[in-house]
């Protein structure tokens, strides 16, 4: 019997390869997308971790400031501590680098990380950073001023030889409005993004930051208790309040935590295809079981038990799942490899920009995602397997078909929906909205479970309307008696359309909220910024006095400076962003606040935090924030300095920085830090001014500010002249171009959701076509009887098409209602718990109407096409078979 069952399944797969291929393709697609996202992220995170370990070396602890820099006096205290074996001072900066002599016109400026360290300690603490001078270099080249050593990524980006050349190549480093000239004397082996290493003293002189450090790497004496050592350091008399102690692996962990919500959401989106693929497996096997009804009945007569028939169909679904999973893993690996080569490790969220990882294939992950594919296929084959199990042999052999479907009990769906509502109210787990994802799944299953009950209620209301039209009454009566089977048939449409509707509403709501937010945060028509935005950090800052100089120019009505800087309050979390700008008397005029601003008590400084800060740090409006006060304490020990008291005066919406942002008035920021540099300058030109002439005057002001800014060894001629082939120091960006660029990035980021919507709808419609084909094939005798009673072929096809229109119409209505419910969870639960920002619901009615119309038309056409084959002469002959 087992051999007969295996032969039976193999013959069906062999004679209907297109049907099996469709199910395999659906499973393959879902597995491939989910596995590719996992491989890309794992590879990027592994490469990033290796680069961090190579650049940071192997210290036991790192002393870092919450913001700004540390003083060398702290280094002297820490280095002489008896528990410290080695202490390496480090100064980091960013710059845009380009060859001083352009050997190739294609060489573009490269964002370069500049790192100064004690070269004598690097072999023991960070071997990958140890400079290796080229042949012929002087003995003291390690300590020479304005001399750098580049890693392979920097050499390749700048088009320089790996083994050196004569004369030694030189670089121009542009930071702020300054251009610094350095000589390349050798290489370092550190992997990762472009990097330049030089002696700590030379770096301080070059950048004009004598006595400043960005971190201190510590190696402790063997057997030192780290916890006790931390307490001892923090108890030192000169220990600054804003100094923190971090573990070497904290940086990689912060990036992993930052990208976790993004990659989990990408994985869930990828599994949407797998979820809808289960319905395609269901449709394919339902069609197969309907076509093989007589064969199943014959197997039953020959001794196949109902359990064996159930196992047979489940085995077929598992076989489809295995084939689809294997193909999906291969396709996912190929997609991940191509994405890593073409796009690097950036998943689209900017978390791994600049990282070029190698493919990291994991057997355990492949087994996990392959198992998901098999499980989805088996779940899709469960209902057809039950149908084969419950198939009545005698009636089927006579061609009477299966029993009428029954409407399900509505209480099951109601319980699932109620459970979904309860889960949606739960907080995130480990920062991931796991309960909300389960709630969405229960909501979909509960809605589909309610479908037969809702269909029965609707048909009962429609029966009086169809009583006067025989064909309509015929279609209605059959639908009422087979409502359970038909409801299952349109379940694929309901599932796929609800997901498409939910994604459409979510994306439209997000896009609409982003547009409103851009209007609020871009009040001026023109913005001035450094051309070094790609380098970031101090390199992109404009010098002190630049905003005041521009404000005094003729043709300028008003300017508003903006300064952004990182703030590391916790070593376990990514850095916050501090934004200082003039807030005026009413901060609601310049910030998109979520509620009214509170009055700031006298003697305190008002700050406005983003929604992410509220979620991540647990602060609320009306509270003070002592941890923030520590971050703004003077770095040098000064017992007379008083800590600033920060009062949280409001919460504002920020769609850029999911790690959190803090806004305070620029005057307070400059008073606390003494730093008057700015990042951007919002500018309101006077009415009727010549924009070309105004921009020329602003460029001249930038050149004058560049010449007036003190530095170590700058090439002033290059800084002051933009005529001799040097790049411009500043750029002008209109608010309209920023809006357009932002929306282009948004649409590109969500392009995959539109593609997944099309895939889901296509799978759902294929399921409808397969389900209608299965039902029509089982109704050949019914059509033959109708033909004998006098109905023409056109009338029979009209009945079938009417049923298709009715069922897909009901499925469209149910799908839209269910999709709107899912979108509420996505917009108000999943999005805030994942990215810590809220948005307003925006329902794009025209797009939803178009989706529904496409589904109804497609369902009607597929039903009509399925009925053509069964309503011809074969139907009449099928009736004669019983004579």
Write the layout of secondary structure elements.
Elements: H1 2-15, H2 17-56, E1 61-65, E2 70-71, H3 72-79, E3 84-99, E4 110-117, H4 122-125, E5 132-133, E6 147-150, H5 152-158, E7 170-175, E8 178-187, E9 195-199, H6 200-207, E10 212-213, E11 215-220, H7 226-234, E12 243-246, H8 250-291, H9 293-301, H10 306-343, H11 363-389, H12 393-397, H13 410-424, H14 434-466, H15 470-481, H16 483-489, H17 491-521, E13 526-530, H18 546-551, E14 556-567, E15 576-581, E16 605-610, H19 611-617, H20 626-631, E17 646-652, E18 661-665, H21 666-673, E19 680-685, H22 691-708, H23 716-720, E20 730-734, H24 735-749, H25 751-778, H26 780-788, H27 793-835, H28 845-870, H29 873-880
Parallel strand pairs: 4-9, 6-8, 15-18, 16-17
Antiparallel strand pairs: 1-11, 1-12, 2-10, 3-4, 3-7, 3-11, 5-8, 6-9, 7-8, 13-19, 13-20, 14-15, 14-19, 16-18
Q: How are the strands of the largest sheet arranged?
A: 17-16-18-15-14-19-13-20
What characterizes the major β-sheet?
8 strands, mixed
**End-to-end separation:** 33 Å
Outline type: elongated
List the uncertain runs: 403-407, 636-641, 712-725
Beta percentage is: 5-15%
Number of strands: 20
Q: Rg to the nearest angstrom?
A: 34 Å
Residue-averaged pLDDT, rounded? 79
Number of helices: 29
Structural class computed from helices and strand pairing? alpha+beta
Oligomeric status of the shown chains?
single chain
Q: Helix amount, in percent?
A: 55-70%
């Amino acid at each position: 019997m087992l051999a007969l069952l295996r032969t039976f399944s193999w013959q069906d797969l062999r004679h209907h390869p297109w049907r099996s291929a469709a199910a395999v393709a659906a499973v393959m697609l879902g597995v491939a997308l989910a596995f590719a996202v996992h491989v890309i992220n794992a590879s990027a995170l592994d490469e990033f971790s290796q680069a961090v370990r190579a650049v940071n070396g192997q210290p036991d602890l790192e002393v870092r400031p919450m913001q700004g820099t540390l003083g060398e006096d702290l280094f002297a205290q820490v280095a002489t501590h008896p528990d410290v074996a080695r202490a390496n001072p480090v100064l980091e900066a960013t710059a845009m680098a380009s060859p001083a002599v352009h050997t190739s016109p294609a060489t573009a400026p490269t964002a370069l990380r500049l790192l100064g360290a004690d070269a004598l300690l690097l072999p023991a603490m960070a071997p990958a950073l140890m400079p290796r001078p080229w042949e012929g270099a002087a003995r003291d080249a390690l300590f020479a001023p304005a001399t750098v050593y580049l890693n392979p990524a920097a050499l390749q980006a700048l088009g320089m030889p790996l083994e050196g050349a004569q004369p030694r190549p030189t670089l121009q480093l542009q930071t702020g409005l300054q251009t610094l000239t350095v000589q390349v004397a050798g290489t370092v082996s550190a992997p990762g993004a472009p990097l330049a290493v030089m002696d700590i003293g030379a770096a301080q002189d070059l950048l004009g930051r004598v006595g400043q450090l960005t971190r201190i790497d510590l190696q402790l004496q063997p057997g030192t208790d780290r916890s006790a050592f931390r307490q001892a350091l923090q108890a030192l008399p000169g220990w600054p309040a804003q100094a923190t102690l971090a573990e070497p692996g904290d940086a990689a962990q912060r990036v992993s935590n930052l990208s976790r919500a993004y990659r989990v959401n990408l994985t869930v989106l990828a599994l949407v295809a797998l979820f809808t693929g289960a319905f395609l497996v269901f449709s394919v096997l339902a069609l197969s079981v309907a076509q093989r009804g007589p064969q199943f009945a014959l197997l039953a007569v020959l001794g196949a038990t109902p359990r064996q028939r159930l196992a047979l169909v489940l085995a077929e679904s598992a076989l489809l799942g295995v084939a689809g999973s294997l193909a999906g893993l291969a396709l996912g690996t190929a997609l991940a490899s191509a994405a890593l080569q073409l796009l690097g490790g950036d998943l689209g969220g900017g978390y791994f920009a600049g990282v070029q990882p190698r493919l990291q294939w994991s057997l355990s992950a492949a087994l996990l995602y392959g198992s998901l594919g098999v499980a989805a296929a088996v779940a899709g084959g469960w209902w057809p397997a039950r149908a084969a199990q419950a198939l009545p042999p005698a009636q089927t052999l006579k061609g009477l078909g299966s029993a009428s479907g029954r409407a399900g009990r509505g209480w099951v769906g109601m319980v699932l929906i109620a459970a979904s509502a309860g889960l949606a109210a739960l907080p995130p787990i480990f920062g991931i909205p796991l309960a909300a994802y389960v709630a969405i799944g229960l909501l979909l299953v509960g809605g589909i479970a309610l479908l037969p009950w809702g269909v029965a209620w609707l048909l009962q209301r429609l029966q009086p309307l169809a009583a006067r039209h025989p064909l309509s009454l015929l279609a209605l009566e059959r639908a009422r008696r087979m409502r359970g089977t038909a409801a299952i048939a349109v379940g694929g449409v309901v599932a796929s359309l609800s997901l498409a509707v939910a994604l459409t509403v979510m994306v439209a709501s997000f896009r609409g909220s982003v547009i409103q937010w851009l209007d609020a945060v871009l009040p001026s028509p023109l913005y001035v910024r450094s051309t070094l935005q790609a380098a970031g950090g101090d390199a992109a800052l404009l010098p002190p006095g630049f905003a005041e100089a521009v404000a005094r120019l003729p043709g300028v009505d008003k300017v508003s400076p903006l300064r952004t800087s990182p703030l590391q309050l916790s070593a376990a979390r990514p850095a916050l962003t501090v934004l200082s700008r003039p807030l005026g008397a009413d901060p609601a005029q310049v910030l998109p606040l979520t509620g009214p601003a509170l009055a700031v008590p006298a003697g305190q400084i008002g700050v406005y935090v983003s929604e992410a800060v509220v979620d991540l740090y647990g602060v609320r409006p009306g509270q003070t924030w002592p941890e923030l006060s520590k971050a703004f304490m003077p770095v040098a020990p000064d017992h007379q300095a008083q800590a600033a008291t920060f009062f949280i005066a409001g919460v504002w919406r920020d769609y850029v920085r999911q790690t959190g942002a803090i806004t305070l008035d620029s005057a307070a920021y400059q008073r606390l830090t003494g730093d008057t540099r700015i990042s951007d300058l919002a500018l309101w030109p006077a009415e009727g001014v010549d924009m070309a002439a105004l921009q020329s005057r602003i460029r001249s002001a930038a050149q004058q500010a560049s010449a007036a800014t003190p530095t170590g060894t700058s090439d002033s001629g290059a800084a002051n002249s933009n005529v001799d082939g040097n790049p411009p120091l500043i750029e002008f960006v209109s608010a309209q171009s920023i809006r357009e660029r932002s929306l282009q990035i948004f649409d590109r980021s969500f392009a995959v959701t539109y593609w997944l919507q099309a895939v889901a709808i296509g799978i759902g419609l294929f399921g409808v076509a397969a389900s209608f084909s299965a039902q029509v094939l089982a109704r050949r005798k019914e059509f033959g009887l109708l033909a004998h009673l006098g109905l023409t072929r056109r009338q029979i096809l009209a009945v079938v098409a009417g049923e298709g229109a009715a069922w897909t119409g009901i499925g469209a209505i149910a799908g839209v209602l269910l999709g709107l419910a899912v979108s509420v969870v996505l917009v108000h639960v999943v999005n805030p718990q994942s990215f810590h920002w809220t948005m307003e619901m925006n329902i794009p009615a025209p797009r939803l109407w178009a989706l529904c119309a496409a589904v109804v038309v497609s369902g009607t056409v597929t039903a009509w096409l399925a009925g053509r084959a069964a309503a011809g002469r074969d139907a009449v002959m099928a009736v004669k078979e019983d004579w």
